[in-house]
Amino acid sequence: MRVVHTITELRQALAATRPAALVPTMGSLHEGHLALVKQARDHGGPVVASIFVNRLQFAPHEDFDRYPRTLERDCDLLKGVGCNLVFAPTESELYPEPQTYKVQPPGELADVLEGAFRPGFFTGVCTVVMKLFQCVQPRVAVFGKKDYQQLMVLRGMVRQFALPIEIVAVDTARADDGLALSSRNAYLSEPERAEAPQLAATLHAVQAAVLAAAKSGARIDAAALEAQAMGTLRSRGWAPDYVALRRRSDLQAPADPAAEPLVVLAAARLGKTRLIDNLEI
Ligand code: PAF
Questions:
Q1: Could you identify the atom of ligand 1 that is nearest to the CA of residue 144?
Q2: CA–centroid distance, residue 125 to ligand 1 (Å)
Q3: Is 26 near ligand 1, meaning CB less than 6 Å away?
């Protein structure tokens, strides 16, 4: 496995190969990322993992500075799962001048849920992913469903810009107790880590209530279910930003929850750590 830090080296390394499968990451890798790489291996060409903590997607008060940077360990893990090439640019390599050209996703998808609490987040994500796509020119790019809204925003970007890239989605990797794997889990104290699976448990409770209502023909009261889930989290010491039952197709509130494929998404703070999770229903 080669590790390169510049766009020139990257392009040279890929010049004579088949088009790559790209796994974009911000490093601090865990089993969830490695599952993306394993999935990418099925696509024929070389597997490229990018490691870049993208300042553009962090608000000034967020954790850009303390985001864990563990390049050596990440490379060992990537080598172990058959990654062929790691692209780990410095900030000055990827952003040699202020990145004033940006990719702005549509508000109806990107200003809700995560976007409502993290203004500019998806512009930062789309801009760096577009740039990574230009650098690697992959045939396939693999993303986790844990960042469900991100996946939908990026699918829209690829579709509307007619990028010749297939977006592959991989199910969320979870710890045995149900906690969705995330680099930010490393911030949790021991008692917080013990409490953290309650986020997934709360989503399962919403899922169970929706399925039970659908089975009995009762009306699905999305607002009541969301409020109840937020209340449960608050009573356990969480500060939820949202628990939202949405249509899978466009992440809008469902007109008829019984008739449309749904997903329940949540973001909540436990102590200083903000966790997100979701469950398709
Ligand atoms: O999901 C992430 O880790 C990041 O948002 C991504 C896609 C690598 C862009 O920085």
A1: 1
A2: 6
A3: yes
Whether residue 128 has its Cβ less than 6 Å from ligand 1: yes
Name the residue with the closest Cα to ligand 1, atom 5.
Answer: 125
Residue 156 has a pLDDT of 98
Residue nearest to atom 1 of ligand 1 (CA): 25
CA distances from 257 to 181, 208, 212, 231 (A): 29, 14, 13, 21
50 Cβ neighbours under 8 A, 6+ residues apart: 22, 23, 24, 25, 86, 87, 88, 89, 132, 136
Q: Is 32 in the pocket of ligand 1 (CB under 6 A)?
A: no
Q: What does the pLDDT read at residue 249?
A: 94
User: Which pLDDT tens digit goes with each residue over 139-183?
Assistant: 999 999 999 999 999 999 999 999 999 999 999 999 999 999 999
Q: How confident is the model at residue 60 (pLDDT cuts 50, 70, 90)?
A: very high
pLDDT of 154 reads 98
- What separation in Å is there between the alpha carbon of 34 and the centre of ligand 1? 14
For residue 54 and ligand 1, the question of a CB distance below 6 A is answered with yes
Q: How far apart are CA 137 and CA 130, in angstroms?
A: 10
Closest CA to 235 of 213, 205, 264: 205
- Which residue in the list 33, 43, 61, 204 is annotated as catalytic? 33
Give catalytic status of residue 30 as yes or no.
no
CA 192 to the chain's CA centroid: 22
